[in-house]
């Protein structure tokens, strides 16, 4: 899978972000995207082939694997990375809209098209809310699908066509669990950063509105 588009998207968003937003971009790029591409993807690469059950009943191993791993951890992680980065496109599109509007009218309509104010501020806040919501949804999804953030060494399966309860063994469970904890930790860090940036922008805008009203009253 090519991650060039996501990399370019994060680079574009970085230009219009606050200081906290740039930290978020760095965390997503360095501690999530690069870790995924460089290491995590290879760990789950042959997870189906390395899933072994102590029975040769045709279909039993496939059914058990599908029951305990309805969606691969690594594919769900990839989907999470794409989904939490996509709301940032709203900001990029809004800035592009401002720039095209200036070209259409052939005059300077904004002091800086990338400055977070007015309509762009609302778009930015919406993107932060969406990113935070998606992070939480995926964390809950991980927890529900796999009954917690753990990778067991042994799972017991009694689903048909298995004739009885069989023992199935997961390959490299410790290594997979370490990366799963890393995934959860970086996701939680991104949630904290998004909430911090959201609070910062709301506070900054509130102070700005208060000062404007105060100045008007003084005049």
UniProtKB/TrEMBL annotation:
<dbReference type="Pfam" id="PF00029">
    <property type="entry name" value="Connexin"/>
</dbReference>
<feature type="transmembrane region" description="Helical">
    <location>
        <begin position="21"/>
        <end position="39"/>
    </location>
</feature>
<dbReference type="InterPro" id="IPR019570">
    <property type="entry name" value="Connexin_CCC"/>
</dbReference>
<dbReference type="InterPro" id="IPR013092">
    <property type="entry name" value="Connexin_N"/>
</dbReference>
<feature type="domain" description="Connexin N-terminal">
    <location>
        <begin position="42"/>
        <end position="75"/>
    </location>
</feature>
<dbReference type="InterPro" id="IPR000500">
    <property type="entry name" value="Connexin"/>
</dbReference>
<feature type="transmembrane region" description="Helical">
    <location>
        <begin position="178"/>
        <end position="203"/>
    </location>
</feature>
<feature type="transmembrane region" description="Helical">
    <location>
        <begin position="118"/>
        <end position="143"/>
    </location>
</feature>
<keyword id="KW-0472">Membrane</keyword>
<dbReference type="InterPro" id="IPR038359">
    <property type="entry name" value="Connexin_N_sf"/>
</dbReference>
<protein>
    <submittedName>
        <fullName>CXB7 protein</fullName>
    </submittedName>
</protein>
<dbReference type="GO" id="GO:0005922">
    <property type="term" value="C:connexin complex"/>
</dbReference>
<dbReference type="GO" id="GO:0005243">
    <property type="term" value="F:gap junction channel activity"/>
</dbReference>
<feature type="transmembrane region" description="Helical">
    <location>
        <begin position="77"/>
        <end position="97"/>
    </location>
</feature>
<keyword id="KW-1133">Transmembrane helix</keyword>
<keyword id="KW-1003">Cell membrane</keyword>
<dbReference type="GO" id="GO:0007267">
    <property type="term" value="P:cell-cell signaling"/>
</dbReference>
<keyword id="KW-0812">Transmembrane</keyword>
<feature type="domain" description="Connexin cysteine-rich">
    <location>
        <begin position="134"/>
        <end position="201"/>
    </location>
</feature>
